[in-house]
Amino acid sequence: LPAGLTISAPTNISDSGTYNAGPPQTVTWNLTSLAPGASKALTYTVTADDSVVGGTTYTNDVKVVSTSMPVGDPQGTERTYTTGSTSDVEVVQPPLTKSFDPKVATVGQSSKATVTFTVPSGTSYFDSTAIDDLPDGMSFESFDGCTGDAGLCGAVTNLGPLANTPSTGKTRIAWFFGDVASSPTDRTVTLTYTVVVGDTYANGSKVKAGDALTNSVAAYWNATNKVTTPPTNPPAPNGVAGFVRVWLRAAGR
Question: Fewer CB in 10 Å around end: N or C, the chain?
Answer without folding.
Answer: C
